[in-house]
Amino acid sequence: MNPFDAAAFPALDRRAFLGASALLLGRAALAAIDDGGVAGRAPAPRPHFAPRAKRVIYLFQSGGPSHLETFDWKPELKARHGEPLPDSVRRGQRLTGMSGNQSLLPLAGSFTPFRQHGACGRFVSDLLPHTAAIVDRLCIVNSLHTEAINHDPAITFFCTGHQQAGRPSMGAWLSYGLGSLNDNLPAFVVLVSKDASRDQPLYSRLWGSGFLPSEHQGVQFRAGREPVLYLANPDGVSSAARRSMLDALDGIERAQQESLHDAEIGARLAQAEMAFRMQTSIPEATDLVGESDATFELYGEAARTPGTYAANCLLARRLVERGVRFVQLFHQGWDQHGGLPGGISNQCRQTDQASAALVLDLEQRGLLEDTVVVWGGEFGRTSYCQGAMTADDYGRDHHPRCFSAWLAGGGIAAGHAHGRTDPLGYNIEEGGVHVHDLHATLLYLLGLDHEQLNFKFQGRYYRLTDVAGEVVPGLLA
Amino acid sequence: MRPRDLPSLVLALSGDALPDFQREVRPLLADRCFACHGPDEEARKRGLRLDTFDGATATLKSGRRAIVPGDLAASEMARRLTTDDDRRAMPPETLHRPLSTHERDTLLRWIESGAKYETHWAFVPPQRAPLPDVRDAAWCRDPLDRFVLAPLEADGIAPAPESDRATWLRRASFALNGLPPTPEETAAFLADPLSGAHERQLDRLFASPRYGERMAADWLDVARYADTFGYQSDGECRTWPWRDWLIGAFERDLPWDQFLREQLAGDLLQNATREQQIATAFNRLHRQTNEGGSIDEEFRQEAIADRVATFGTAFLGLTVECARCHDHKYDPIAQSDFHRLGAFFGAIDEAGSYPYATGALPPPTLRLPTPEQETELARRGENVAAAETALGEAHAAATTHLEEWLASGATPVVPTTVMPTPVMPTPTLKEGLDGGAPGPSGSATALDGDHGPTFGAPPFRRCDPLTVRLLVHCPDAKVRAAVLHTSHFTIESDPQGFELLIEDGHLAWRVVHVWPGSAAAIRTVEPLPLGRFVEVVASYDGSSRAVGMRLWFDGAPVATEIVRDHLDGVAATRTLQVGWRDRDVGLKGGAADELSLFDCVLTEVEVAELHAPGALAATVTAARAVSADGAARALLAEWFAAREPVVQAAAERLRTARGAWQELHDALPELMVMEATPHPRPAFVLTRGRYDDPDRSRPVAPDGAIAALLPFDPVWTHDRRGLADWCTDRRNPLVARVAVNRLFAQCFGRGLVETQENFGMQGDPPSHPQLLDWLAVDFVESGWRVQALLRRLLLSATFRQQSSVPASARRDDPRNRRLARGPALRLSAEMVRDQALHAAGLLALRVGGPSVKPWQPPGLWEDAGATGSYAPDVGDDAHRSSLYTFRKRTAPPPNLLLFDAGSREQCLVRRGATNTPLQALVLWNDPVFVETAQALARRVTAEVSAEVSSEHENGHTALARLRLTQAFRRLAGRAPADAELGALEALWQRERVRYQADPAAARAVAGDAVAPAAPGVAAATETAPEVAARAELAALTLCCQTLLASDAVVMVR
Question: ipTM value of the model?
């Protein structure tokens, strides 16, 4: 069977899709203002080949979750607890300035047990019981690797494909490449947990549009009265008054259009109309009141508190239901240089149930088959202890050479595991997946060839995957 | 799989005109071929290069030739372009950029016609072309118009009619002041009957303080100016004095060559002024990190690369950064060129990160006293000088005194047996160092490198003399080890205070503000002895100079060399640790004992006494002996002078004077600038651009720029000043063109070269090449005068054209490349906001000063976990020009970002101008726009007062029409058309009725006091006319809001 046969993907409603893209194409064409716009190729926003999924929910775990306490079970590391990291394993590779000067680099085994779960028998840590329960739906990657060793460059690399600022983010590329699936919500929405420990900051560049037109930048939805900045009318201005204003604007712009013949005028008016619709559609989308008790039970009680990771997972489902192309959650607090057992237990408690619930909820609603869900952070953590190691406490430094993530949903090889690290969880032994490879694979799932999705800027064709990246067949169903 | 029948193809093509190499052929070769067959030798496939004639026509290893000029059948390239064999076809499918039939035929015709190469237009110095002949010479107001009109006439296209004066004035006002004209200014211009009216308006606009601000606003993007460092913790970088220099530079109309020269190398100019040094902050505005664990060299190289890239983009219009990892794939920029340019910009004494723990700015910095502070600083400096002189005299007197005493054999006037007492309580220090290891005096502290004793921070200022004594046992030769220090170590630039370190086996002694750029440091010539306890004594005399620092081993002075001698700020202590430091390398396997600190400089004989009691008495005896040698006398003289009460009093006065000077100096505001270092680090080509892989066989020095553009003249200095000479030399093909194109774009919305950021082979060719060159040559020959060029552009017939043209004309030339109509552009983010504030009469006009924080939605900084919280300014600072809005790189002001303002994380020469729903939301709901709409409504209500009867319904309407018209004028710079006014009036009528029925809503929208009411009058007692007046004001406010989001206001046409 040809895996690219569109018929193999019943969820792909081609007409609906093309309808939506045509709509966006129209808007994009209108919006391509006739001055100063950065020159670039504006490909028609449609996939290069039949997609396996239409949307992505990226559960970004910021700070660098330890693979050794979550998905990469290393009994040998436990057995050699306290021994120095062998030079044969470190191989002279660089360490951060935080532990690089340490006199001793003692190996630290995971404090938490791992157990086999599901029909696939995958080992998952006891810290993640809910995720363990859906392991047959996940493809766990234990062989991710990255290039950066500090948070800022590493998370920038993960979110934009480059360590330095200035490149478009994943969601911006998708918005640019595929357009929107709806006409009253942004194509790319960002949700940041309010209940996370803010150990490492986030930067607007992580969801920025870089050199792409700024309409592709992620729109952050925030908990509270105003889910999107500037969404709420000021006191004394009703929706009816806003409508009335728009009608007047229509009259003014018609007059302007008649004398100037510039399509830009109509385009601006259309954007104002969409803004008006967003004033209704966004509060509707973000209001969880109508969700059933069963749903809250699934996601956990925390989902009733707006802005929590759990509430954001639920909101992410509501947003993809309404045609948002890319939802990226950020949950901070995974940077356990010290006090790792306590810290990571708390992180897992905050995120485990809702992450799993999201997958189950999407599945129940028939959305999982064409939605990709990704869970992971910007790097992993060292097999050795940073700082003081006591009987029940230790810490781990940043580790870019291997770390874990999971994927689920459309086109993903459910129940599989990909890649293998060495017995100490330090280096990759098999099936390495570079950040660029993961990006290429995600684009592939959405029907985009990462080598063709480019934008000419300053004389060069830029890609999310820079000049590298290979689709990883091992992740695909 | 045979190639197509070439002869017949050529026959079919032979009727067409020859392709233009610059405009048609090279762009194709560059885009489709150069990545594999271009200047980058490493990436070159099959040894074929198509960027030169010689390369393209050479016989390859295969025996074939890619191009045989004039002979398609013999040209392998023609074969590859036309084959049906996918494996052999060029460009390969994997490039994903196939040639269109027309493009392929263009290449074939070019080969057939002889494959002539020309140097890329932008790499040849511009020449002044003769002015073209035009039929309608009367249309032309400036020579530049001839270059525009001639091709239009050739194609039978008429330029657009001249726009009305109001339109021209609004355009010119935004181009030069970033604001619309006031109705009064427009009226005065319309009423000016004399010739030269346009010129007089430009005089006014150039003279306005807004001119410097508006010009600066654009350059801030290029300079990637922001108020924070960017990266993880994104602390404040306090660079606004450079921004004020920039405003002033434009106000003074600093010639462009000088503008460039001062920013690149102001510090290296002869008798550099403070302003010229400030200008060099241009090179320090890149992002910097202080994230814990960062590797300094990695980020030092990033900083250098950013400076080079910004230099290349801003002044050369080239993508120099593409040559960081390999030779440029399109342009003749070798990888060694990139790193050689890096050698110019890397020759400052910097760590690569900025301090985390101390909050100090990374050197080099320039202190910026006010004139009053400068006077006071000079006064205190004189006190220091006087105290130094007095100390010298006291010393001399003491020496004489000693000679007399020695000669007389009388009783000593100072006690000979009392040593200075350590200031740090010895018992604590001793107990802290007891335990674990056998030491010379009992029990020493064994060190594992990761742990060790920690004491409270010792009192210390850099004016305080200090001596440290410690027994150190170092077991093996260490590359680095912290022996004793007073600071934290998050990153390498963090340490402050004083410290003893082992570096490559030698002992280093430092007093530090920020390492390495602001420190005094010495190092032993010989290594520290290993395997035994060494009694280390280190002294510092409070002079902030390396010559005031000494080291002793086991009671004897050791030879040292000066490592750094530029201590320029506070050297505060935060702790006192021995043998270890968190995140640093400790003295693993070593031991320490007997720490003591003295608040004076121990003399040599005292150090000897510490090491071997009795040394002092022995020296006195020896010096008093009849046969005393000079050495013993000198030792004694040193000791005697140091302990003599008169000398000590003088030394104390010197310490006080220094302290007073430093107290003022070290708290002065400072600015990161460029300053050449005597310790430049060796620079190399970095393999694949990697910071940790310098190719030591390829050293680079600042002795050349990009030779393919212009060889480096031997008379130019090998520093940034020489680089500035290279840039501003008349033979430089790019700098003037790039500058002229930039100013052209400022007026016309688009450059003659549309890719302002790239004049290289992958950039767009100029729409009017001869015009660009003519303007560039004229610009240089007339002294690089910016205002003169802007004046010419704005007065030209080309600029005066209407921008509205029939739909067909717009369709034929959607981007107005022909310049057959006037410019139409969306206002920048800053202009959108400033215009609203200005129209409402709210814009605060103060120039310069620290950046301000107008209101932004609460919680944005906190949400992201960024450092600091955003405390909005109130009063005037909430209404300053957007130029002054505080720019936090990781959380930029959202209302500017949504209008394409960018994050200032890297150099940007051209912004997008998108059109999104979120922009409408900003204009409706951002409090600054709500507030301006309300203020504008009030303003026009006051301006158009109730002369018309307020009793009659039509009177109200007539008044409203007048007020709406006035609001329209204030925002759009013109009177509304009937249809526009009609739509607004209808809105006003609808909303007036609505607000009359809902007084609470009216109050919320219109604000409280409509007319001055008696204090304490409650709403319930309001009269009907008052309620009605508020409803009208509320309705008018909505009308103003509507206007703010309209095309007539957000576009300048």
Answer: 0.89
